[in-house]
Amino acid sequence: MAALGIFSRDKKEKLDRGLEKTKENVFKKLTRAMVGRSEVNEEVLDELEEILISSDVGVNTTLRIIERIEKRVARDKYLNAGELDRILREEVAALLAENADGEPVGFESVLTAKPYVIMVVGVNGVGKTTTIAKLAHQFKKLGKKVFLGAADTFRAAAVDQLSVWAERAGVEIVKQKMGADPASVAFDTLSAARAHDADVIIVDTAGRLHNKLNLMNELAKIKRVMQKVIPDAPHEVLLILDGSTGQNAFEQARQFTAVTEVTALCITKLDGTAKGGVVLGISDQFRIPVRYIGLGEGLDDIQVFNRTEFVDSLFRRDNE
Amino acid sequence: MFDNLTDRLEQAFRLLKGQGMITEINVAETLKDVRRALLDADVNYRIAKSFTDQVKEKALGQKILTAVKPGQMMVKIVHDELAELMGGQMEDVDLKGNPAVILIAGLQGSGKTTFSAKLARHLKSKKGRNPLLVAGDVYRPAAIEQLKVLGEQAGIPVYTGEDNKNPVKIARAAVRHARQQGYNLVIIDTAGRLAIDQEMMDEIAAIKKEVNPNETLFVVDAMTGQDAVNTAREFNNRLDYEGVVLTKLDGDTRGGAALSIRAEVNKPIKFVSAGEKLDALDVFHPDRMADRILGMGDIVSLVERAQEQYDTAEARKMTKKIAKNQFNFNDFLSQVQQIKKMGNFKDLAGMIPGMGKALKNIDMDDNAFRGVEAIIQSMTPEERENPGLLNGSRRKRIAEGSGTSIQEVNRLVKQFEDTRKLMRSMTQGKKMGKMMGKMPGM
Fold first, then answer.
1. Regarding the domain delimited by B100-296, which CATH topology (the fold level of the hierarchy) does it fall under?
2. Model confidence pTM above 0.90
3. C-alpha triplet B10, B12, B15: angle, nearest 5°
């Protein structure tokens, strides 16, 4: 296994545990498909197709991966399961690498401005508020002054929820009453945070389905209003995607990007049985890096996304 | 709802339509498209495969009978198979016992709390029940508060365990409370949990054992991908639930999870939830859903929803006015308000065959009528009664008053006149079919 770098061991184990099911699946199937065979054949590729599609990779991306592998096979003439494993890993990693630039970004190195403004968007129930709490906690641990903006003034008790998290994480929160204009909350948050010399500002927004045009336009407005306080804000528009979401995640990425120019993705709920294959597909199709992954409901259950480690965890065989 | 899948299938069938006969070869091509459409729609890999195999068998078996119109025949076969896969007939919720108890379970963020409130409201208004909502999510910050707020909006009392942090005890106490206070329906909202979280799964199994619910409903996000079958199966293994609830269907997800889950656990989908408004809940109708998948629209749902909201006395009065050509802007406004009451306009329009696709890229939401209402409300009572009064200067004043333009006012007056003419001719039994096309805003 690759050096852990910025990951602590227990975090790494958590990711592994979360992806356990994926690994078992992939390799049990691949090995079964390879037994008694000396070359990759139709059946193995079918098997691979099933594995990838079943991981929510999507038909387009799956076909692309298979095409690449077929080309590699024609060229390299590999012979056994071990080599198939390696080639597969390389091709999948290449898919991700093509779209992201450079090395993974740590929690600290993200902060290229002061205050650094993160606007969090996504459909309902993906884990926006929980992710904000986790991020706030991480930045706080780095000794940063964090302000949260409770601009989800729509969902029942969303402000209360964020307030509880703010208290737990020990960070400031700016809020108005439920039903208030979210853009106004964002404006207040940025003004207050700047006045208090904050390092990081994270603005929550209400979950909205990406096909509701009016609600999407509201996001654009929130963003515009932020710029009245800090002209280059938000520095990051973080789209939260639920790791168990299927192909609709593409549409989410497309629509939210169209309205708010999403700059980074966070994939949540990867501690469940969902495979997270959606990451490959979206990284393949949109040029938006995956920044974080969410792995549970605790304040520490978030990691900086690392392509190599992710693909590693996805395809690493346990008993090797 | 399933517009995207519809598009794909339509395309697949278009390929077939050009051909005179269904052969092994052209059926194989079409089925490949159907299968791909299903996969793109997040139908489980294996279920999509067995589905297309089934369709192929039927298609080839019947080719001699209807080979003249292979496209139509394929539509029928695919439709029938889809409907069968999704569960045949509709199934109601069991509300026997006093109180009847419904337990809500699902993953985090699937929409359990919103659904709980919707269900309580639904069973109160449709079945005359006196429900009590129970806040059983003691873990997520402010989850209890969320249910309280929703309960208040829906006019349903909410039972919370106060300082009690044990969901099993809360559930037991809530049922006792309901019995004492005369509530005949208890709906227990629970915390979201992962199927692989043993401790949490033990907890919900214990709640179920404790309260012995009539129904346990598994709530699942319609956008869920391939994992839907795993989650549905694991929850079913532990809870043996009675039904499935599909949420967030107002998005543009293709909703393949609906097909997968039904096929995987053989439990009916009892409700679909589409929107954050508390009345955006429908009983699931597999037949109609299959129709939707194939772009055949959902006229029955539309009519039912219209009937429910429409005031028949009001309608009778209106018919008379129309017949006498007395239909005025006040009536027009009340019509608009009737339509708005029926729910999300785009949802409604999507139920009309052919409309779903046409409306896909049009912004038509609940606010679509806002301008219309503003204009009418800027008219004087006399103007509303007698639209003939609306000369240039009056129109200018109305435009200013309503924050619109003269063009918009002109357009509305024109639409109004057209509508009036049309309605009059309709009451005289003519031109029925043209109504939809001429309704303002459509």
1. Rossmann fold (3.40.50)
2. no
3. 110
